[in-house]
Amino acid sequence: MPFPASGTSRGGPATTYHLPMRIVVLAALAVLAAVLPAAAQPALTFSAAQVHHGQKVQVRGTGFTPRGHLMAHLIRPDGTEYPEMPATADDKGLFFHDIQIVPTNFGSYELLVEDLTTKRAASQRFLLVPLPFAAAVVTQADRLPPAFSGVWEGAATQARTPAPAPSPVVIALGGGRIGAVVGTVAYPAQLCGGELWLVSVSGDAVQLGEKITYGEERCAGRALVTTRMGKDATLTFDWRDVTQNGAAQGTLRKRD
Question: What are phi and psi of 34, to 5 degrees?
Answer without folding.
Answer: -70, -25
